[in-house]
Amino acid sequence: MKYKKLTNAQRSGLNQIPNRRFTLWWSPTINRANVYVGFQVQLDLTGIFMHEIETVQKETIHPRKSYKMNSSCADILLFSAYKWNVSRPSLLADSKDSMDNTTTQKYWIDVQLRWGDYDSHDIERYARAKFLDYTTDNMSIYPSPTGLLIAIDLAYNLHSAYGNWFPGCKPLIQQAMAKIMKANPALYVLRERIRKALQLYSSEPTEPYLSSQNYGELFSNQIIWFVDDTNVYQVHLLDFPNIVIKGSELQLPFQACLKVEKFVVLKPDKTTITEPHHIWPSLTDDEWIKVEKNNVNVASLTQSEIRDIILGMEISAPSAQRQQIAEIEKQTKEQSQLTATTTRTVNKHGDEIITATTSNYETQTFSSKTEWRVRAISATNLHLRTNHIYVSSDDIKETGYTYILPKNVLKKFVTISDLRAQIAGYLYGISPPDNPQVKEIQNGFFLI
């Protein structure tokens, strides 16, 4: 070896840790703590970018922060408009924080990524140890004594945080981290890059999860087993060549029925009978209305929604409050985006005047109030609304009239309507001889 000329790759490989694939291959079980020698850190790569928040400062991170394990620095620095009361250091999962009259106007956040191994992936212990190490050593320079260290384990998809908390910070971090861990593309890309570098691959391609889009596979002529592994203590997944193992995004009915809150409420009293071959009690329509979940009007559901519910999808009743919140958020977003409108006009002397307007109230005179294109497109789709017609039965009284309206008259009334203009009509009908309270409508004369 001494006399042989080495390539650059061989020469650089000799003074690093042994080949990573060899390290994992040699390990008695993949990913153990005592296999890695030396640079455990070349997996700790981090980058945080935040914009458009005035009271947040992006810290200039030391380029070697990613693989310097004996010191750290802040990734984000928050400035408060007033002094925050901060608690003593505690974990993200701790519920009782004790305030000790410490106040601050600067609050830092340090994000630490790690690739855990089988022997040491207690992320809470890691976060606490790192926070205490870095806040007490002489190497780390944090901008204030109060802050938070967030630790993320990419290998085991775990997260925790340890540090001082100001009021409202802990629930915010809990919600934000839950969302980030579930669906953050940057974490996913980083995890996949590390897996690629370590050459950790499954022997067979990952099967797509069962969802409401590909549920048709359930009805193929193959033998399908449903394995409910939600409450298990130990899992051994063995690889068989003729068995394909898939995950499921659907709460299939036999599992979903166990998740119905207050299952016993479906039995209002002892007299309610359940047939021997039924799981649901035999209730009348009125009783079902009282025990129905989420107050969802069944007639207003589309076919795809009904299919999703049968396949175990959770639904919630339409909320006017949620719709209003969404509209307000949309308006604020539109107002924050300034669009410059340039208008060319001519005065009575023939001089050309060019005006540029940016604020919303200045552009009102130049915008059309009718939006006829949108109305025209919407009006052509009105016939689709007649596919699912349901009548709200909240204010119906027994003493009032009952109107029987033919479906073809109702369809005609809907399809000739307009979204903005009010439409009225005269309806003509008769009452049957045996019941004067019922009015059977036979034709109509509509005014547009």
From TrEMBL:
PANTHER family: PRE-MRNA SPLICING FACTOR PRP8, PRE-MRNA-PROCESSING-SPLICING FACTOR 8. This is Uncharacterized protein. GO terms for molecular function: pre-mRNA intronic binding; U1 snRNA binding; U2 snRNA binding; U5 snRNA binding; U6 snRNA binding. Transmembrane segments: none annotated. It holds the Pfam family PRP8_domainIV. It comes from the Eukaryota. Residues 1-58 form the Pre-mRNA-processing-splicing factor 8 U6-snRNA-binding domain. GO terms for biological process: spliceosomal tri-snRNP complex assembly. InterPro entries: PRP8 (IPR027652), PRP8_domainIV (IPR021983), Prp8_domainIV_fingers (IPR043173), Prp8_domainIV_palm (IPR043172), Prp8_U6-snRNA-bd (IPR019580), RNaseH-like_sf (IPR012337). GO terms for cellular component: catalytic step 2 spliceosome; U5 snRNP. Residues 207-236, 265-293 form the PRP8 domain. Signal peptide: none annotated.
